[in-house]
User: Which sequence fits this backbone?
């Protein structure tokens, strides 16, 4: 599994890398602009990401804007809905309108911080990104 972790907080970024590294390659970005550039380059090179973990609150461009840009880019490059990157939004904000908007714009899962490794892996199992028995180190 190839993962793009988009997180401006270094502790959260490291936690996600530690959780996801046993399942494959991890690349980090610290804001929405960097995430979009990284995502586009990988897709154009024919090495797309399988998963994007996307923080909702970041400097310069927030996660919702980045989510919409990624989905637009996929659409304009012929990626169908079944093959699109799985996007898991992460947020310290537990507001129903924000969660609904994220799903409306195309996220596949939404996790509230602090994120538990077990919950993250369970979401990835639901999305078909890791095997049922896989958990990785705890």
Assistant:
């Amino acid at each position: 599994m190839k993962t793009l972790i988009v997180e401006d907080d270094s502790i959260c970024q490291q936690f996600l890398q530690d959780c996801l590294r046993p399942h494959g390659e991890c690349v980090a970005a610290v804001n929405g602009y960097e995430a979009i550039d990284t995502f586009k380059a990988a897709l154009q090179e024919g090495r797309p990401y399988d998963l994007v973990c996307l923080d909702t609150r970041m400097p310069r461009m927030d996660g919702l804007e980045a989510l919409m840009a990624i989905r637009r880019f996929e659409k304009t490059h012929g990626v169908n809905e079944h093959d699109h990157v799985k996007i898991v939004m992460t947020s310290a904000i537990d507001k129903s309108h924000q969660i609904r908007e994220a799903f409306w714009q195309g996220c596949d899962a939404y996790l509230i911080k602090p994120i538990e490794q077990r919950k993250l892996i369970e979401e990835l199992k639901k999305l078909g990104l890791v095997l049922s028995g896989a958990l990785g180190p705890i």
Summary: The CA atoms of residues 57 and 63 lie 6 Å apart. The beta strands are 3-6, 26-29, 51-55, 86-91, 109-112. The longest helix spans residues 63-76.
